[in-house]
Amino acid sequence: MLLYHKFYGHWFLVGGVSIAYLLISSFLIYRLYQLFITKGRWFTKRRREFILWRFMIQNGFYYTKRIKGANGSREKIKLPKVYLKQDKLTMSASFQLEGIKFQDRFLKIGGQLETAFSADMMNQVNEGAYITFEYAIDAIRSRISAKDVRGTVKEGIKLAEGVIWDFIENPHLLIAGGTGGGKTVLLRSLLVGLLRIGRVEILDPKEADFVKLADLEVLKDRVTWTTETMAQRIVDAHERMRARYAIMRERSNAKNETELEAFYKYDLAPEFILIDEYPSLVSELENLPRDSKIDAFKVMGDLKQIFLKGRGAGMFIVIATQNVKTDDLPSTLKDNIMFRITVGRVSGYTYDSVFGEVNANKAFKYVEKVDGKKVYGRGYVAVNGLPAREFFAPLLPNSKDFSFYNDFKQLSRIEDIEQPVVKEVRYLQNDLINELSTDERMFKKIKGLLKDSGVNFTGKDYSEKEKRLFVQVFDRKNNGEGTLKEIIAEVMVDFG
Ligand SMILES: Nc1ncnc2c1ncn2[C@@H]1O[C@H](COP(=O)(O)OP(=O)(O)OP(=O)(O)O)[C@@H](O)[C@H]1O
């Protein structure tokens, strides 16, 4: 009664408030419904069941049966045996085979379901009675924060829930990313984990994203960007690899072992060499001036050795690049980099070269937004030779709460192993003549021609680089690959 009196004569106000109340509550109910549909796991699961049911019906995967009733006969639909199992980040769909009329088509539907569920097929298991396709789903839910990237030597570095770079099992890492796609953030997130367990060396030929980190104690003298120093660091790393093997052998002998064990059994921390913009480094090495002190052959040869033999000694390489064609990667890299990631927008040929033949039929896509919000660091991940799946790089935390620089600042440095000082090897003329199975006259003739082509021999004896030059000339000469002048002209192109 009191209210009636109070609002009597204010119907506009009462009406307005009621309408606003109705509008706001319907909007809230609608948002809640949307949230349940898109985020609620129960709804998401039911939706996938519906998608599978619809897929079966629309593709004619059902039997029909006529059923007689009081009002005449009607058709009843029956599905073959199909099971859908859903977990937080994976799901599997199993289809009955056992000679039923759909079996041949069931064997091939893994790819279609991948598209239908917007999921990534990881595996297919044919266990006789059933074929089961296993998928990774909801990759975005597996995302972790960059500040939480951690790892151990035995288990590897966790980059997302269910995505672990087990560097011992799958040595070396290739990261390809389009500009602005999140490659640098991913590399830095990786460092959060790597710097805590191993010695890290960074080569940044673009002199861009890592130069600032050179001030940090944990990375002091281990971030380089000029061609000479980067080249020297690769050569040094190769020497360290040999020294690590020597230490391992020594410690293994001391334990009377019959077999050499993994590096960590001998108290050696792993080492990681991170090369950002790898093609820039290669082209800088290739374009060195002729009289450069750097032996580009040796540098690339040493890098190759680390790719081939690093794993045993606990040395691992991470290379990052933008788009990459199959031909850009020498086969040593292609076959020996076992873990591969893309982030952001990359070209079709990059997917081909990074994920290879097994993923040739996969529909890779670039996703700009998820739930209406711009998404960074989304891409794919795979172990070399296995199916690729969606990947969300660790999420960059709010800059108020976290900075990579401050995180790295508090980390302690892992010291270098004690390494014997290696003296430069020089070769005497007579030893070279013997090794090349030639005579002094021919040796001197070739030396003269090399001098005419610009080689500046520094002393009476010969460096490793000079020796390699002679070896190449004699190899080609012995194979009859042209006149001496032609051969020298060709060899000099490579000699740089
Ligand atoms: N994982 C991530 N989480 C949140 N934001 C990200 C993430 N990755 C990238 N970003 C955003 O995108 C911006 C560009 O990322 P980043 O510098 O890593 O790109 P990039 O691929 O290295 O580009 P470029 O090749 O041009 O250096 C970052 O400054 C950040 O704002």
What does this entry look like structurally?
This protein is α/β, with parallel strands linked by helices. The protein has three domains: 42-137; 140-409, P-loop containing nucleotide triphosphate hydrolases (Rossmann fold); 429-495, no CATH class. Helices cover 41% and strands 19% of the residues. The protein is built from 16 helices and 19 strands. It has helices spanning 2-7, 11-39, 41-58, 103-106, 110-117, 183-197, 227-254, 278-286, 296-313, 331-336, 348-355, 404-409, 429-435, 440-452, 464-478, 484-495; strands spanning 63-69, 72-78, 82-86, 90-96, 120-126, 130-136, 151-152, 156-160, 163-165, 173-177, 199-203, 223-224, 271-275, 315-321, 339-343, 369-370, 373-374, 378-383, 389-392. An eight-stranded mixed sheet has the order 12-11-13-14-10-15-18-19, with helices on both faces. A four-stranded antiparallel sheet has the order 3-4-6-5, covered by helices on one side. It is elongated. The termini are far apart. The mean pLDDT is 89. The structure holds adenosine-5'-triphosphate.
Instruction: Calculate the terminal CA-CA distance, rounded to whole Å.
Output: 100 Å
Ions, cofactors, ligands: which are bound? adenosine-5'-triphosphate
Proportion of helical residues: 40-55%
Outline:
elongated
Compute the number of structural domains: 3
Total number of beta strands:
19
Tell me the CATH superfamily of the largest domain.
P-loop containing nucleotide triphosphate hydrolases
Strand order of the largest sheet: 12-11-13-14-10-15-18-19
CATH class of the largest domain: Alpha Beta
Q: What summary fits the major beta sheet? A: 8 strands, mixed
Name given to the CATH architecture of the largest domain: 3-Layer(aba) Sandwich
Q: What's the gyration radius in Å?
A: 32 Å
CATH topology of the largest domain, what is it called? Answer: Rossmann fold
Q: Would you identify the regions where 5 or more consecutive residues have pLDDT less than 50?
A: none
DSSP helical segment count: 16
Report the β-strand fraction as a percent range: 15-25%
Q: Pairing-aware structural class of the strands and helices?
A: alpha/beta
Give the overall pLDDT as a whole number: 89
